[in-house]
Amino acid sequence: MDLTSFWHTHKATWDELEQLVEAFQKKSRKVSASDIDRMTLLYKKTSAHLAYIRSHYPADDLALYLNQLVSRAHNLTYKQRSGSWQQLAHFFGTHAIELVQKRIWFIAVAAGLFCLGGLFGFIAVANDPLNLYFVLPDGMAEYIDPASLGEGHDTLNNPLISTMIMTNNIRVAILAFVSGVTFGLFPIYLLLFNGLLVGALAAVYHQFGSGYAFWAYILPHGIIELTAIFIAGGAGLYMGYRMLVPGRYSRRHQFLEAAKESGQLLLATLPLFVIAGLIEGFITPSTTLSLEAKYSVAGITLLLLVLWYAVGVRKKRQDDQSASRDLISK
Asked: pTM surpassing 0.90?
């Protein structure tokens, strides 16, 4: 049986299993005994479908989808009930990393677009400082004064500033995600434009001899913040890609699956934006911390991000091995 026929034949089974899994997760107290029996039957059928796809089409997206669905059903069927905190820990510690792994190339493209915009902005202003007035939004260039970097930060209302920054960054991430419906065009523009702004500002401070101080005020929160924006941008790009390249399946199906997955990716970035907002509101403007201390904070945030990813990858690998052993023994 070819892959398209296989998908049309068994799609109803997978949809029903997914609906039952979601019902178990959201309203487990209202689940009846017949629902449990039905989910067990569908779980076994889908496991057999997964084994077939792994054998004949291991590189197809369907293998990834069925693997995720079977894993979710397996966890509900054979594992003890987890509390809400455990579910949150699983989502942000394992599931979010799995999603990042699956769409790492789209996230890398998002980062590349931002860096490309930054390079263009830096070169444009380095060659002619007056280009700053063309790059920055109207009226913004007049307020850029490299000589006053860090002045007045001791009078800021840090909690208010932190909340405003968090809200703005989350808004940007949501926009990057939702605008994926524009076939990925607006996320591309958003990433290029934001990179252009940072690159132009970096050129201004570099020419003034304040490049070291400039990055000390950017990197402590910027590493986490930009990571979250790249993930959200990658989610938007993936949605646009699936609208343009649906593959063997219907465009509507691929878009809905991409939107569901990308929405989870967006949700995974929210804690990153909260942490970045706190750093930008309290640590970045600090006049008591030295520039070296701020660079140290930036290094720590980078290390924590790498650890979060590495631990998540390891935990996911262990879960997959455990699930495979359980399936073989059944």
From this structure: no
The DSSP secondary structure of 155-193, one letter per residue, reads GS-HHHHHHHHHHHHHHHHHHHHHGGGGTTHHHHHHHHH
What CA–CA distance (Å, rounded) separates 215 from 219? 6
* Average pLDDT value over all residues in the chain: 82
Burial (CB count within 10 angstroms: exposed 0-12, middle 13-18, buried 19+), residue 29: exposed
What are the angstrom distances between the C-alpha of 231 and each of 13, 100, 218, 265?
A: 32, 7, 19, 7
d(CA 118, CA 106): 18
Buried b / exposed e over 212-226, threshold 16 CB at 10 Å, is: ebbbbbbbbbbbbbb
Q: pLDDT at residue 27 above 70?
A: no
Tell me the torsion sign for CA atoms 138, 142, 145, 146: positive
Q: Minimal CA–CA distance to 186: which of 172, 200, 196, 199?
A: 172
Quick one: pLDDT band at residue 159, thresholds 50, 70, 90? low
